[in-house]
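[stage:ingest] chain + small molecule (alpha-D-glucopyranose)
[stage:ingest] validated
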Amino acid sequence: MYVSQTVATSISHEVSEIYWWSNAITYQIYIRSFADENGDGIGDIRGIISRLGYLKELGVDAIWITPWYPSPQHDNGYDVSDFMDIDPEYGSLEVAQELIDKVHQNGLRIIIDIVPNHSSNEHRWFQDALASDPGSHERNRYLFRDGKGEHGEEPPNNWQSVFGGPAWTRVVEKNGELGQWYCHIFAPQQPDFNWENSEVRDHFIQVLRFWLDRNVDGFRVDVAHGLVKAEGLPDAPFQEHFGLLDSRDFPYWDQDGVHEIYREWRKLLDSYPGQRMAVSEAWVNPPSRSALYVRPDELANTFNFDFLTVKWGQESIKSSIDRSIEGMAAVGAPVTWVLNNHDVVRAVNRLEMDFMAADSPKDPELVIETDFFDFQRAKIRARSAALLMLALPGAVFLYQGEELGLPEVLDIPVDRLQDPIWKMSGNKERGRDGCRVPLPWKVSVDGAFGFSANSEITPDQSWLPQPLDWGNFSAEGQENSADSMLQLYRNAIGVRKRNPSLLSSHFRWMGSPDDSFVFTRSEDSSFLCVVTFEVGEPVPPDYAVLLSSQEIEFRQIPPHTTVWLERNGSACL
Ligand code: GLC
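[stage:predict] done
[stage:export] tokens:
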């Protein structure tokens, strides 16, 4: 029996100090698609307030809200025109305060997205820059440069936008002639700030204070690895850019200079009471590089994209876990675990297709062809992955709808696609809308399956159309079904919260047969997590099953299953 075999690997990873974010479960709310209270087919802040009970029952510790600032919505709020206000589509500063207060009254925490790499082109600063001359103080808040070529007709360098096409756009000067170029690593409507300019730095300190004073518990730092560009803006060594996940050595990613910014931010966060934090979105590789963002005097967490992009398989997952834990151990920071977010294909689909290519599907035709998609197989793997993730040491980030087992919506009509990637890739990539479809709350079709408080809104009228079978995935539909995905998440989160060893940083591999792995989270091995792949395994004789991602018959763990076990008589709960 594998449990009695010698221990194969032991990783002792002590986090320097335990903060709330060391082992919290944070639920990401993509505000546009979560819940629509004012009945316009777009999610809003009051919608979030109306669902706080659901989140409490799910058992999460914190929520993260994607950008809610005034925005022309070219990139669903990641193009911010005022960092210190709320988009009227979503509510107002008063409603935001009501949410922050209610979140706290419910014993939860709230973190908000901060977007420091760029603003909207409608931001006052950018409008001022356009109206000012080359070399002006106003232009120096962004990255304006003269073009190359005799008349400046070529972009200043070869950088490509993450969304497709050149990362530079040329402007018309006051004299009506084509003039300088400005840099936008994302859409042209998202000009990059110049972080060498102390005015930009000071502005963001002011923005952070603004929200900290309103009692948010922390920030999710958008494109945290992009703020500082290599000196002189040199050409990139690669001509093509493969989207957000492309973490190769570009002169605009992961420059050492970014860390100084986060050191300053950490000081500010620490000057506030109540353990304020920040988590970085830094698509960098390997985890030892991500670890630099969470050194003791920098940010609190960083998303673990190594785990998110790993292939489904015994060896690959095991080594990703090793890399992740070792990477963070080097700096004494908590590990994080993520399976989904608003930028990647939902895990249900990724895991089924045997590849974890998290990026948006490249071929628009391919994704409409869903015949090859085996939903049963997909569900089995997604359930196993969820239980595995919730058994690992550290913090977990869930993405709305993950707990409902929502699949990627692969067939949104092209005339309804909203992601700037669709247009900027020259209609080659459908983009990320498939994971952003509004949540189904109710079985009945009214109000877009309960997404909208306005029962007249049809699934087709929500800002992204919902599939007609979306009600099957609804929270209401899963509520009373013991083997639903929702109940699996609720049960697992409940067990995790009541079991101190699952909240500790203790982690140790146990010996196991080739096609499975086993780890314990307790010194005395009273708690075990077993994950099988192609081949099933028997439950070890002296252990009882606490939770399993698949039904266990005759004490036989099926393939592609995760099981939580406790030693008989140990009462680890
Ligand atoms: C981040 C966001 C993504 C957005 C991009 C530009 O990667 O997660 O949704 O498009 O930044 O702000």
